[in-house]
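Hi L.,

You mentioned the student needs an example of a multi-chain input paired with its predicted structure. This one should do, with 622 residues in total across all chains.
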Amino acid sequence: MAETRLGPGREFDAIRALVARWGARARGIGDDAAVLDVPDGEQLVVSTDVSVEHVHFRREWLTAGEIGWRATVAAASDLAAMAATPIGILTALTVPPSWRGELPAIGVGIGEAAERVGAAIVGGDLSDGDVLSLAVTVLGCSRRPLRRSGAKPGDALWVTGAFGGPGRAVRDWLALRTPLAEASLRFARPSARIAHARWLAERGATACIDISDGLVADLGHLAAASEVRVEVALDALPCVADVSRLDAAVSGEEYELAVTAPADLDVGAFELAFGIPLTRLGVVTAGDPGVAVTLEGSRVELTGGYDHFSL
Amino acid sequence: MAETRLGPGREFDAIRALVARWGARARGIGDDAAVLDVPDGEQLVVSTDVSVEHVHFRREWLTAGEIGWRATVAAASDLAAMAATPIGILTALTVPPSWRGELPAIGVGIGEAAERVGAAIVGGDLSDGDVLSLAVTVLGCSRRPLRRSGAKPGDALWVTGAFGGPGRAVRDWLALRTPLAEASLRFARPSARIAHARWLAERGATACIDISDGLVADLGHLAAASEVRVEVALDALPCVADVSRLDAAVSGEEYELAVTAPADLDVGAFELAFGIPLTRLGVVTAGDPGVAVTLEGSRVELTGGYDHFSL
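Structure written out for the whole complex:
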């Protein structure tokens, strides 16, 4: 489709520059709204996610490109948690004067992340404001969305990837230490586990959540939604270098998946396909709804988590 | 559908309170993403719009409920401009501590506006931040979306409603005067012209834009997109009380529609159906793309407009 020509004005100049950088990845920008096709027989799946300077990140922690990448992947990760396929992204950006020079680089990061998750950039809004903020909406589709509420007693609990990187990076930055690259990259360049979720859904996954508030906190949401008890043994939890399992279990913004599924998933096939671990961490039972966590056979209470609203 | 149960935490308490206020208007909140059906044979139409304190409004101008209403209607108005029917709304809210007590009232305004435009509230995000910001995404569907780019030489130019209220209200507030209620209500409680756009689309409208940057500025976007010349005579422009036609022509955030359509629309039927004026203001020609404005037979240059990015 030919692009709609934009009229004059400084806001539109900025949008034109972004669209030029996005190239074929941007589609149909310039109308009042974007038009997308949802394949027959599929449902629309949609989520919105806001990343705010000083709340979700600090300027000295990330490059402008990483800020754009991270906000986009964070939003797409919610679609991964539903086993949906992203089709389109909208970005509502609030850009203070001190950030305007970085807008093209932020746009590059958004574009790279859109490319990675397989979605077109189909619209957005641009505003002045006192603080940099990126509200990213991701649209996708699915023939059978995977919900938080489907976990059943008898399911096993699985997680993708290795945990603790983002929490460790933020702790180091706050202490004015330089984090190890493994940790800082997990914060700055997270991945949305989209194909991974579809793989799991096709093999009988019953419920899924992406880890944004911390593994234990998010399992609490899954347990509440499914009205089940999730029993987690942290012993096997894969952690990035120099992070304890207890710290890894409360590290937020991992964007890994926690999935309830059959106990006999083919771990080797998953790891061969995706190059990251798939680890069985526990079981779902019919006990009191909630999460019970153990480490080395002892019950541990982890109340931490990443509650942005109380920062 | 039963609501998904939310887990513990202060952010979730705030979301629970909002969802409780929205009642049946909120649907499927609590999963990672919302699931919606797009009717077979229709396309998905989607737009996002951000409203930021100090940029789009000031606290002393609006009640909390009006802030929520206005942000929601502004986003829905972009769907009206495509002659699309809203089906779902997502709200990404950044709420500083000084605004938290007002969050329920903001939610009431969002819910009232969602009710008015006929959409469910299907998701959102809530973050701390230094300034109140509402990023609202509206999803809709249409069998044949109306675009900015369809205007053809020979079409007539039409506008809905009466202009100048928002511009006048903002000027008065900035000068510490109390605006007339007619003007301030047009700013605080705008309407999205959704049914109006469908009426026009069914009667041969070729292109449409909603007036957010100001009538003349937005016609510039329509003219650029359609590669046509739009000749506008402001003489007939309906204005709210105490506003000149020149001021009305550059007043932003009107959320009225400018439409290119046949010259013989049944104005009486429109006005009977909707209770607002439908006014023929000019013609589309094959001249140099752009907008030519006259008042009382003389050419006028109106370069003003509402370019948030340059405030």
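You could point out the following to them. Residues 64-80 of chain B form the longest helix (17 residues). Chain B touches chain A through 85 residues (CB under 8 Å).

Best wishes,
N.
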